[in-house]
Design a protein that fits this description.
This protein has 202 residues and is an all-beta fold. The protein has one helix at residues 124-128, and strands spanning 5-8, 14-15, 28-31, 39-40, 52-54, 73-75, 82-83, 92-95, 101-102, 104-105, 111-114, 133-134, 144-148, 154-155, 170-175, 183-184, 197-199. The model has no long low-confidence stretch (mean pLDDT 90).
């Protein structure tokens, strides 16, 4: 297909299996304002040349973008609760305020903007089974900076847990100057051996 830019209209409620997998020239994917929940078929966006994805602020669930291997930057809207199916190639990721759970390998991530107000705690078994972000910045020379947004109320248990030493490469954790965070959970930054700078809220 010669399509290079695609906008999903607001009235769409389902996208079929492998619907756009033949769109080899598609580089930009937009979701219109007004979209809420979409039922995505397997491989709906298996488009390896996508470099830009603009998610609507009204969306409540994410498409699987794991095959979009040229995608570097992504902003997760505030109404999405579950973050899964991310490409490993992301270098910048912004987590919205409503996110409750998240998982995926992010070895090339250099900046994580974390704004989840009250995300779920992660239990030991969950961490072992991959229900967290793993290998954060492990393939970067400079490591990853984690910016904690001003509205974040807590850092959940084991949020940035690393089961093995040095498997996460975050070097800087910075809280917003007007942060309201009052709680940092158990083993939130376990095995963060490369951490060199922490800016805690007052």
């Amino acid at each position: 297909s010669a399509i290079t830019k695609l906008t999903i209209p607001s009235k769409v409620t389902a996208i079929g299996e492998n619907c756009f997998s033949s769109c080899s020239n598609l580089t930009q994917l937009n979701f219109a304002t007004g979209i809420t929940n979409i039922n995505y078929g397997n491989g709906a966006f298996s488009c390896p040349n996508i470099t830009i994805v603009n998610l609507s602020n009204t969306m409540t669930n994410l498409p699987n973008l794991s095959n979009c291997t040229l995608l570097k930057n992504l902003i997760i809207p505030n109404n999405i609760q579950n973050v899964v199916g991310l490409p490993t190639t992301l270098t910048t990721l912004t987590i919205g305020e409503g996110v409750k759970t998240m998982s995926g390998q992010l070895p090339y991530l250099t900046t994580l903007n974390y704004n989840a107000i009250n995300a779920d705690d992660v239990y030991s078994s969950d961490a072992s089974n991959g229900y967290i972000f793993t290998k954060i910045g492990s393939s970067t020379a400079s490591g990853t900076t984690i910016n904690i947004g001003s509205k974040v109320q807590k850092i959940p248990n084991r949020l940035f847990y690393a089961e093995q030493e040095n498997s996460n490469n975050y070097t800087t954790i910075s809280f917003a100057s007007n942060s309201v965070c009052k709680s940092i959970g158990e083993e939130s930054f376990y095995n963060c051996n490369k951490l060199t700078s922490v800016n805690l809220p007052d």
